[in-house]
Amino acid sequence: MASYRGASYVLEQLESILEQLEVNDEVVIVDDASPDNTVETIRSIADPRIRLIESPGNRGYVRAFETAVLASRGEYVFLSDQDDVWVPGRVAAMLTALQSARVVASNFEILGGDSRPWIPPLRSTWDARPGANLLGIMVGYRAYYGCGMAFRRDMVPIFTPIPPYMRESHDLWLAICGNLAGSVAHLEQATLLRRLHETNETPAGFRSLGRIIAARIMLARLIVEARRRIKRSAG
C-alpha cells in the first residue's frame, strides 16, 4: 500500500484487509511523507502484521508502490489503495487465480453503489488474448486498476525497478509485464469496493490531447522495456 493524506479512509481499508490475512502475512505500507495524521492513524492499529515505512520526502505514489513491493517478503504480492474496502473472499479468489497465472486482475464495484467508470469491466475471455489486451492498453480500452491486482514473487524482478520516466500508471506497467509474459488471469467478480472522491489519484474525467499523446508514447516505451526484461529473465 502507498499512503498519502489518507487519514480519513485508511483505517477502514486496513480493517478490511487484515480480516482476510493469515497470521504470517504482512501489510507493507509506504507513507509518502503525509502532512496529515495518516501515519498516526496507521500506528493506532496494534497489529504486528503491519509494516510501516515512512518516506523522508514526497516522491509520488509510483515510487511508494515500488518501495513497498521491494520491501515485501511474501510469495504473493497484492496491491492496495488506501481508501477502498476489500470484499470478503478477495484474497482466496485471487490466490486461486495465481496458482495458474503470474498476474491477476479483478473487477471492482463503487462504494455506495454508484456507477463505475465507462471503461468495460474485465472479462475472463481476455486471459487468452494478450495481444488484444496490449492493444487495449495502448488505446485506453483495457481497465487495469492496481487496487484490484496481485502477482507472484517471480514477477518482482520484471516489475521492478519501475522505469524512472513513469510518474503514473504503475498498474498498466504491471498489466503490460503480465500480458507480455502471457500470464494474466482476469477475474470477472468484483473483489473490492472502490471509493471515489475528489482526491483520487486516478483521474475521473477525460484528459487533454497532449497528455493522451504523452501517455501513449510512455506506454510504447514500457512495452519495449517489458519485452526486454522478460527475455532477459527467460535467458
Strand content: 15-25%
Most strands sheet = 5 strands, mixed
What class, by secondary structure content?
alpha/beta
What would CATH call the homologous superfamily? Spore Coat Polysaccharide Biosynthesis Protein SpsA, Chain A
Are there runs of 5+ residues with pLDDT below 50, and where? Answer: none
How many β strands by DSSP? 8
| Bulk shape | globular
CATH topology: Spore Coat Polysaccharide Biosynthesis Protein SpsA, Chain A
N-C termini distance: 32 Å
Order of adjacent strands in the largest pleated sheet: 4-7-6-8-5
Oligomer: single chain
CATH class assignment: Alpha Beta
Cα-atom radius of gyration: 17 Å
Characterization of the model:
With 235 residues, this protein is of the alpha/beta class. The protein has eight helices and eight strands, in the order βαβαβαββαβαβααβα. Helices cover 36% and strands 17% of the residues. The strands form two sheets. Strands 4-7-6-8-5 form a five-stranded mixed beta sheet, sandwiched between helices. The protein has a three-stranded parallel beta sheet with strand order 1-2-3, with helices on both faces. Strand 1, helix 1 (10-18) and strand 2 form a beta-alpha-beta unit. Helix 5 (130-139) runs antiparallel to helix 7 and helix 5 packs antiparallel against helix 8. The mean pLDDT is 94.
